[in-house]
Specification:
12% strand; 46% helix; alpha+beta; 4-stranded antiparallel sheet; 17 helices; 423 residues
């Protein structure tokens, strides 16, 4: 009898048609579940939500509990990592389902990665111990779990497994030439920068994606020199709070330091902070090819950066520069590359939350809108703060003024996430 608890409720709450009862536990086999956790461990721990709204079969096999198989009716529980936390969604069985067990819980929780590791380790270890006590021979679980534990203890192998997972590969399945590209890039870009770039390359052709990134890194749109007003030593990323809240707090603190109150951030002020000439920023030639990421590259240990923009519109470039400011304040000097991507990692969530609150703080939006959150009002507010309407909508969703359904960029997973996860 297995029970799975998410927060203060049971994800295994179910109605058994055979016994005609509702119960919190369900009769399943621990062995295939432990085997699935062990075989998917690296991807569960490190791989974020897919870039595309519809996940591939390979992603679902590594992240949906139903893949444990063996003929059992598993609860539909989905796991996705942002690096710092594991997001877990439990979905009710469909009403038209003909299965003998109907799961009744729609639940969502985000737990810190250490808690996830501790609970999964304990479950696999207890299952393995039970098998040793009941059987005189070893099973595939003990061998597989022993490998995973050994890999986790080895720093070099652990980093390689993490890289494979964020690229969307099972252990030892990533082509060696792709791994070599990332390994050669690490001294140039920085290890944590590689951790952000890899999820953006989890495409049908990861090799092409990373080669495209290397190609744009050789170009350069504008050169800037960060203002002395931006002092990284005054800012700290608090990993104990949600990523969106961390970005929000950093933006609030910077706006207070700059004395902006509720005023919009002008083009003049934004360019001054990053040391860019306003006329060049406004007249920047639109690149013809869509770029996979935005990128700022530090010139050695100086405060000079080369900025490679991804967005073509001015509002998009303003948002990218704000994300760069967040990266500069929150990231150590060891990273020369500061990427901004669409990946759902904690670092990218911090960037997006920071940029939204820095350019269009929620209190200022509410004052400007005066309670009117119609499409026309959102459009007017976007023009006033010089941002895209989506930035205003996201702020309103994240602060629970509009429902999550307003933004559906996560597609099938959106309704099961807290609004802040959309950032």
């Amino acid at each position: 009898m297995l029970s799975i608890v998410l927060g203060d409720g049971f994800a295994t709450r179910n109605q058994d048609d055979w016994s005609n009862t509702v119960q919190e536990e369900v009769r399943l086999s621990a062995y295939p579940l432990a085997l699935w956790f062990a075989s998917s461990w690296w991807r569960l721990r490190w791989e974020p939500l897919p870039l595309e709204a519809s996940p591939t079969l390979a992603w679902r096999m590594a992240h949906e509990m139903a893949a444990a198989g063996y003929g059992y009716v598993w609860p539909q529980i989905i796991f996705a990592s942002d690096g710092d936390t594991i997001q877990i969604a439990s979905l009710q069985s469909k009403p038209e389902s003909k299965e003998s067990v109907h799961y009744l819980a729609d639940r969502y929780i985000a737990i810190d990665a250490q808690t996830f590791e501790r609970e999964i380790d304990a479950f696999i270890d207890s299952t393995s111990a039970r098998l040793r006590a009941r059987l005189e021979r070893a099973t595939g679980l003990q061998a597989l779990w022993g490998e995973v534990k050994e890999e986790r203890r080895d720093p070099i192998l652990s980093n390689e497994r993490r890289l494979e997972a964020t690229l969307g590969f099972d252990p030892d399945e990533c082509p060696s030439d792709i791994l070599d590209l990332f390994k050669r890039l690490m001294p140039q870009a920085g290890s944590s920068a590689i951790g952000e770039i890899a999820p953006a390359c989890a495409t049908e052709d990861p090799g092409k994606s990373i080669r495209d990134i290397l190609e744009i890194a050789e170009t350069g749109d504008l050169i800037g020199n960060v203002s002395d007003e931006l002092k990284p030593e005054r800012y700290r990323v608090d990993s104990s709070i949600p990523a969106w809240e961390c970005g929000w707090q950093l933006a609030r603190k910077l706006r207070m330091e700059l004395g902006l109150k509720e005023a919009p951030v002008s083009d003049d002020k934004l360019c001054e902070l990053v040391g860019l000439p306003k006329d060049k920023m406004l007249s920047l030639e639109v690149h013809s090819k869509r770029r996979p990421i935005g990128l700022s590259i530090r010139d050695g240990s100086t405060s000079e950066f080369k900025h490679i923009f991804r967005k073509r519109r001015l509002t998009g470039r303003r948002f990218e520069l704000s994300r760069f400011i967040c990266e500069y304040l929150a990231t150590g000097a060891n990273d020369r590359w500061l990427p901004s991507t669409d990946a759902k990692t904690a670092r990218q969530k911090i960037q997006r939350s920071f940029a939204a609150e820095f350019l269009c703080p929620i209190d200022a939006i509410k004052s400007y809108a005066g309670g009117d959150y119609s499409d026309d009002s959102i459009e007017d507010a976007a023009n006033y703060f010089s941002v895209a309407p989506l930035a205003i909508q996201t702020q309103l969703v994240n602060n629970k003024i509009l429902p999550p359904s307003t933004i559906n960029e996560l597609g099938w997973f959106a309704k099961y996430l807290e609004p802040e996860a959309i950032s």
